[in-house]
């Protein structure tokens, strides 16, 4: 299959002779290629007649691959390696009417990805060791972390917990209300635009700008989820997500509270937050309500990894010890 990486092309001896830049570049390109190939598998799965639906699994693999790429891009920025090439020839499948043939090629893609992933898991820890800080003499006490640093740590924990819980609820909601498929884009004025907050743009923003942006956007998602809860109370589905959605709301508030604590310690004035940024019009059609509610939940879940990229980076600025490398 043209364009698909193979583990056999990167034996250990070859990788040991590659520079850090070369290794990171190869793994980045290959992860991008695998993400594109799994997307093709996702499209095949949508046409499958098998009673077992793997759409949520394929979506989760694509999401996790993108999260890994996002973390890798942050690392490349910290290493001043920002001009690495992007694959120009994505993996594309030819139309295939025979489902058995589609299943074989889809299985092959997943198998190759599964065989490839142990390679970066060998290389990344080895590269990490080359950046390890020299340990302090055993007779000295480690320098204490600042209050801001510790408050960031709590903020990261709350944000990570919200991301994991929201992801689980999203997967269950997609399966129950959307047949396991990802949610279609819905035009909802007032929703944060993730495309306008690329990593390159966020890196150029000040700490104050980033904290205020994330605080405002999480608040908007919280307001939008309030409408989703109202929709859910009108649902006729036997599975009720009201408690899950209310739990997400509480977890969002904890994230907002932690972020406000960080901003207070940094003497950043909290802006007056607007209300009703996202307004959902009354809708009698339950299928339409489900689609827009799924979209809101999905957008919020996909936004949180941006926070989880930025908060550790900002946290490192306030460490009185050696900056923490979160790989």
**What is the total tally of β strands?**
0
Strand residue content = under 5%
Please describe the biggest sheet, giving its number of strands, its sense, and whether it closes into a barrel: none
Amino- and carboxy-terminal Cα gap: 31 Å
Radius of gyration over C-alpha positions, nearest whole angstrom: 22 Å
Oligomer: single chain
Average pLDDT, all residues? 84
| Structural class assignment | mainly alpha
Shape annotation: flat
Low-confidence stretches: 139-144, 321-327
Specify the helix fraction band: 55-70%
Number of helices: 10
Order of helices and strands: HHHHHHHHHH
A few lines on this structure:
This protein has 327 residues and is an all-alpha fold. Helix content is 63%, strand content 0%. The protein contains ten helices and no strands.
Describe this structure as you would to a colleague.
The chain has helices at residues 12-16, 20-46, 55-78, 99-116, 118-129, 147-178, 199-204, 207-232, 242-265, 286-316. The protein is built from 10 helices and no strands. The protein is flat, with a radius of gyration of 22 Å. The chain has 327 residues and is mainly alpha-helical.
Descriptive labels:
63% helix; mainly alpha; 0% strand; 10 helices; 327 residues
Topology record:
Elements: H1 12-16, H2 20-46, H3 55-78, H4 99-116, H5 118-129, H6 147-178, H7 199-204, H8 207-232, H9 242-265, H10 286-316
Helix pairs in contact: 2-3, 2-4, 3-10, 6-9, 6-10, 8-9, 8-10
